[in-house]
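Field reference: sequence -> structure
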Amino acid sequence: MDKFIVNIIHRPEMVPEYSATVTGHGKEEDIGDKKLLTESLDIFKTQQRLAHENGLKVTIQMTYASLFNEEAVQLAKEHHEKYGDEISLSLLGLPCEQFREKYKTKDFCIWMFSMEDKKEIVNDVFEKFHDIFGFYPESTGSYYLDAELTNYIKEKYPSVKCAVATCWEEGPKAYHTCNNSWYTLFDGGPWAPWIPSKQNTHAPAANEAEDSGIVAIPHLSRDLIACYDGNGSNFGTHPQNVLRGMIYDSKTWEYPYLYNLIDQFRDQEKYNNGYAYNMMFVGPGWMNKMGRWEAPYELLEKSYADGCKYYGQLKKEGKLTDMTMSEFADYYREKKSYTEPECALWRDILYGSEKQVFWYTDPYMRACVNMDQGGAIVDLRPYAAKLKWEVGIGTKHVQDASYPFLIQEKYRAGYFTHYAGEGTVRSAKLCHNSEEVDLCLCRTKAHFSQEGKTRILTLDPVTIEFADLTVKLQTKEYFEEGSGTIKIERTILEMSDPNAEVELNEYMVACYGTTEYPEDMTGITLKCEGEGGQTIVYEYKCREASLEGAEAVSAVIPAIETKVSLTASGRAEGYVREGYAFSPMFTLGYKKKVSDKEVFATWLNLEKAN
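Structure field:
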């Protein structure tokens, strides 16, 4: 039976991130302020009441601060007994008088501390939890949990089986819309549950040896187009996200977008063997009495009540199963294999653009295909490298926990660029006489199918008009489970002159990085592989090499321990191109003359480079 699962997660955050500054506006900071603590607890009670009134189970993620509050502890115990709520432990909500006194810091993001402090904090919080409840939690979480910390938690507290482990696309885009002051940088992870590897939280485990021992869930379920194109904090199934994005009728206080977004997540079961997932994770800071996001408290409360009511109605209709985090972890382990991908064929439900993208993630890659750009790959993260990326004080990456990209259209331009240089994209060009057309200019739509362990995107054919020739072309893209490859197949369906030939140029422009700013490309090795092959060691000299019948064209990027290559189905001219300082990219490609009814395929391959 098809299953749509929801995790409802609440946390009694006694000193909410947002409330402390709003409620105490104009006063000297006092995180022990009784008014603030009382209001925070009242909001938590309201959230619990709204979920329970609609027949929904909750995971109560106790914060460190709440462990010192007898009423919060008693409520958690009562709701566990009465409603079956899970008592969990959050690593958010650390700030309180006791924490500040001991650690002498205002830091509150667990992944940013030194490893030594992370361990001490985890021990403090978990042992305090045990002292109060008499058991250790089965689930935990934060905005982000780095691999070293996850491994430590699992080793020291093996009862933990589920964790909120990353926030989808919470990177530079979110940072810029928070006045460059929200240093939570972790783009590049999965948008749906996964089993994180021991090496890197974002990269799913490929097998038991890589398994970190937990099931990870994202912090919020987000709109997979609007969040990627813009600020993710405005587009999620957390009702206050929708208010923050101003996506509601200010007169009627209605927000059809919220329900459409939940429904689009329900729809993903079509692409994931009958399973779909959604989560709502809300701290009390979003619903304080002074209002938030230009919305009064009454609207904040109404939106949350309506969100709970919608999930409750779906449950009554047998269309939704509510689970606690630990219950979900057990279900997920039974349902999914290590190599089974998560797929999402997603359409724009906000702007009326009819844009459609396809997201794919497995232990070897995360990729995004954009149908508005002819099926071009516009985001690619090489999980095959399982890149060890330590984060926090004392490491190379104090704040930036993102998984590096090879292609990222928002930070490295994509198809449309300035007057010089190239942006990162995997696409193709058709050339005839002196004319050239990039498939990025050909909007299309995709249809999903599955054959065995291969997920297939069949794109609607596109028509390319040259001065004296019209070509009808179809693209199919194959994602073979467990292979680390994407096969792209082009078929010439029709030509106005059946005897004509066109040149098909399959190409990939790439680089590496986690932000908009360029990295040092020196030392990247570009190769045309095969007899008579050529090598270019990247020095920003704008050089190019080609080889007829190349077995592969490849790039090895030592900084991210990744090898990426293209291979072809038939004999073709392979080429590699080095960039220059103003356009610090590299290009891999194949050129081949094709005629009517001909099929040509290329494979994009990802592997770890030693």
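Note: Residues 231 and 291 are 21 Å apart (CA to CA).
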